[in-house]
Design brief:
The chain has helices at 6-15, 21-30, 36-45, 52-60, 66-70, 76-80, 118-130, 146-156, 200-209, 218-232, 262-275, 306-317, 319-332, 361-371, and strands at 106-111, 137-140, 163-165, 176-183, 189-196, 240-247, 283-291, 343-344, 348-351, 355-358. The chain is an alpha/beta fold and 384 residues long.
Length: 384
């Protein structure tokens, strides 16, 4: 925000809280608080300040043209995508039963609160696994989560372009199990079942424990019931890997409808997993994935290792969750008794919050974990 006027700085602070961003922009322009040129400069400096639906509406309403927007240096392909505002909707029916988790597979669970980037991370991992960089191929067998997989593949693994429109939020009470076979370059098969549990599960646990039951719906209760059937009552011998998805952000984000921090949600959720015996004998791996780390590079002090920076970030932003997970790894011998370094992750270049040029470089590392030998996994501590 160097050389921004006070009004421009105020605009950036207030636009994210506006109920109607386009009406707010019109008001600021009509009052002369900012000029069109200043507005375009703000968009050029922060491509993700406003989502693509509202930016497109600004174009429709004549506040600026696509040519003026492209002239600021924003990728012209992103600008051209403003005409296509049809966002893919993920399946709204996802009920997992115990028989949907096959015997003889590695169960891989992705945990995260809403808007953490969990669904997009899974979509990008699917794209990476289907490419030939890390694996020979990815086969998906008939399973409860196949429709979900097909939809994510359709969105993230387009053959004609790397540019996509990111999907909307996954419905509150949907959980999916995708039964896959990953084949490495030595033709060895790795049975992996990817399980995506509803992010709202952790939220509802906190609400119920802290007197906010009014926020808990029947859909939240349905998601928790499935969780208990799949994990709390599941004592099979399948090895389990847990990826905890955390969002990188400079400022603590809180949901407008309550006062709880992300650290509170994650700590409470992790404690629930521990109390119900989920992170016990059959769990041999746990990792922390920090999404949206493309936003972190400008924050890393010169000469500082990015992994050390992210560990410091976790200690400051998610202190209770991070300490609890490290202690659980030590107590139960998960990952050889030592929690691996956090994994920096991004899905590529994102513009206007929902337009993306997908890059699977980070996702390749997740696929490498899934097909690596599962003995002596403590060595993975030094990979990232």
């Amino acid at each position: 925000m160097e050389n921004y006027t006070v009004a421009m700085k105020t605009f950036c602070q207030r636009i994210g809280k506006a109920d109607d961003p386009v009406a707010f922009i019109k008001n600021q322009l009509s009052r002369g608080a900012i000029t069109k040129e200043q507005l375009l400069r703000i968009f050029a400096d922060d491509h993700n300040l406003v989502d693509y639906m509202h930016v497109g509406q600004c174009v429709d309403d004549g506040l600026f043209t696509v040519d003026e927007l492209a002239a600021t240096g924003i990728d012209e392909t992103f600008v051209s995508m403003l005409w296509d505002r049809q966002q893919d909707v993920l399946p709204d029916v996802g009920r997992i039963k115990m028989e949907d988790i096959p015997v003889g597979t590695r169960e891989v669970y992705f945990w995260g609160i809403p808007t953490s980037g969990k669904t997009c991370a899974i979509g990008t991992v699917i794209r990476a696994a289907r490419m030939t960089t890390v694996t020979e191929c990815m086969r998906v067998e008939r399973c409860q989560g196949k429709l979900y997989y097909q939809k994510l593949k359709q969105i993230f693994d387009r053959k004609d372009t790397d540019y996509i429109i990111l999907p909307g939020r996954t419905p509150v009470d949907t959980n999916f199990a995708i039964k896959t076979i990953l084949v490495d370059h030595q033709q060895k098969e790795h049975p992996v079942t990817i399980v995506d549990m509803a992010g709202e599960l952790f939220c509802s646990l906190v609400w119920r424990e802290n007197g906010s039951e009014n926020l808990v719906t029947d859909k939240h209760l349905t998601a928790q019931k499935e969780f208990e059937e799949i994990l709390c009552n599941n004592r099979d011998s399948n090895p389990k890997t847990h990826f905890f998805i955390l969002e990188y952000s400079k400022n603590e984000r809180r949901d407008d409808q309550d006062e709880f921090s992300q650290d509170t949600y994650l700590e409470e959720g992790l404690q629930y997993l521990i109390d119900n015996g989920v992170l016990e004998k059959s769990t041999d791996e746990a990792y922390v994935i920090i999404t949206k780390t493309d936003l972190a590079w400008n924050d890393v002090p010169e000469g500082m290792d990015v992994n050390l920076y992210l560990i410091d970030f976790l200690n400051k932003r998610y202190p209770n969750f991070f300490a609890l997970l490290k202690r659980q790894c030590e107590d139960k011998g998960i990952c050889g008794g030592q929690l691996p370094k956090p994994i920096p992750f991004d899905i590529g270049e994102v513009c206007f919050q929902h337009l993306c040029r997908v890059n699977v470089e980070r996702a390749n590392r997740i696929v490498e974990i899934l097909i690596a030998p599962h003995e002596g996994r403590k060595a993975w501590w030094n990979i990232f």
